[in-house]
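3.2 Worked example (two chains)
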Amino acid sequence: MESSNSNPPKEGLHNPSFGPTDSVVNLLLFKWDVVQRLFSTFAGGWPGAGLLLLRLLTGTTLIYSGLSEIREGSPPLCVALQAVGVAAGIALLVGFFTPVAGLLATFAKAWITIWRFSSHSGDPWMALIQAILAVVLAMIGPGAWSIDARRFGRKRIDLSDC
């Protein structure tokens, strides 16, 4: 009697997961379902409504504070970071590439927070709050009422009409 420690290969389709060596560019350009892979579901109902409100709040504050800082004539680096924050705020507002937009906003606002703490100019707390809200959205996802959910969400096939 022969003993084998290996399992026989399973039948069916092979669905490889993304490896740590896959580049972000390849994931975004060539594998469009990357956003769906980042979330287990796109929450609907009350949780989806909560995510919609969180996206609206975060996007609006990023846009408003960024535009007001740009109009005030801040230093060039701060203006560039605020412009990134405004662009990410627009993407978060509509729920477009939410994880990427959330991380961009987080890095921009974290940099602004560190700069304000070190230079003792301006209020760093609002930028810190915006960074935290943006990273929360990057981790949780956009919810059912977003462009991401329309483009990358699970599809429902209704066979009752056949």
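3.2.1 Second chain
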Amino acid sequence: MAAHHSGRALPPVLLTIVLAALAATLASCDRAATAPPDNNRTAAVAPAPAPAPPPQPQRELTWSGKVDMNLWSAVRVKAYRVARKQQQPKTLAILRIPRLNLEVPVYDGTADAVLDLAAGRIEDTALPGTAGNVGIAAHRDGYFRVLKDIKEGDTLVLDTPVATEQFRVQWIKITAPDDVSVIEPTPTPAVTLVGCYPFYHVGSAPKRFIVRAVPVAGSPLGS
């Protein structure tokens, strides 16, 4: 092949350099056409990420508002009526024990402002509606005085923003106030009710009354 520049032939050495450069360019183009860069191949074959599941809708929790104070102490009745005049906290769940005619909203925390009004989720325990150990406390001379009649096998219902969950009372025990093992995380879902004991003790109660309930088959946490 002849190459020309301004009508004159290129010197042999320069002609060799030009042909080598042209060959290299053609070879490079050939690689680009037949073998795309690895990052392009990866992008072409990588699967599209799975779409995120839609958020679970939250239910509005409502309860009857009826409170049976027949077993309550006079001090607890007075504290409840005062607490009712304050702003109500957000409801985390509604606890029901049908055989004992107990229905009580569950708020967050165990401060007096909560327990004078309702039951409270014990700090650092699982939130209602999650797969953990949900600790719930209430006063022994108020809402939880009916626990004096609870039995193993009784049904416990926890209505949460996610679902209505049914539990069965697995065991009942009396323990010391510093026994925190009863509210530690559990490998499976559970509800633990905690109240002071004895129920009719005058003054600061020396013990704690504990009820452990586990999901029944067919409930959202027990399936």
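3.3 Remarks
The first helix runs from residue 12 to 34.
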